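Consortium newsletter contribution from the modelling node. Members have asked for a concrete example of what our holo predictions look like. Here is one, prepared for the NAP complex that several groups have been discussing at recent meetings.
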Amino acid sequence: MQAKQVMVITGASRGIGAATARLAGARGYAVCVNYRKNRQAAESVVEDIRNKGGQAIAVAADVAVAAEVTRLFEAVDAQLGRVSALVNNAGILEQQRRVEEVDAARLARIFATNVIGSFLCAREAVKRMSSKHGGAGGAIVNVSSAASRLGAAGEYVDYAASKGAIDTFTTGLSAEVAAEGIRVNAVRPAFIYTEMHASGGEPGRVDRIKGSLPMQRGGHPEEVAHAILWLLSDEASYTTGSFIDLAGGK
Ligand SMILES: NC(=O)c1ccc[n+]([C@@H]2O[C@H](COP(=O)([O-])OP(=O)(O)OC[C@H]3O[C@@H](n4cnc5c(N)ncnc54)[C@H](OP(=O)(O)O)[C@@H]3O)[C@@H](O)[C@H]2O)c1
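And here is the predicted structure:
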């Protein structure tokens, strides 16, 4: 019998993270739904998974804070077992601004969550997955963005640059742990209908842009979730250091 698959997914109280958590629960993963503030939303994702016969817990932790990330993984060890899949999904952007209007405090917030948070979570996962540390292997998916290729000029170049760092992180970490039973890949979504665009000050951003996309429509969180679950699955067993773009052809 296959060992139980245990997933940690960061920022899973809504949007792409919540859709991925629900799909993972339906596919038999025991799922840790991480969130930062919105406990009620995270608990409702957990309830959806449990109502369909799955196993899930919600754990609050700010991924930008090392001690909270350590606590998150210790909670998973104790309540679900050893992690076999990590989705580094938590990510933030702020109000649309030109680069000369961005201050250092904002840069620190964006890079702390999007980049440092992903490193800290991967660090805890590798300690548990790597054959070098007695682990049974595993898979990591980083949620980057098409912004890493496109640059988000006039909107949030800081956010785009943080996702550029995630692409490089994916390439480097994948090579570092490939011989230790761990695959590391990334998805690069864009123009997905979630609440993130409201943080940029334009809740209707996807509908404004969709006409300029080759596919002429925005994407849905579930479409990203399917790509993430494929990259984590044995069907992707020879795939590491790879990127799946989910941006309507852009
Ligand atoms: N939507 C898009 O078009 C799009 C495009 C490209 C890439 N992405 C990427 O996809 C990922 C998910 O985006 P989304 O659109 O689903 O975003 P979203 O709807 O804004 O959800 C963000 C999630 O991240 C959590 N979060 C934020 N900061 C956190 C922190 N420091 N620690 C732990 N959790 C934190 C939030 O939890 P709380 O509610 O508890 O704060 C929430 O669950 C992000 O990495 C984003 O950059 C999205």
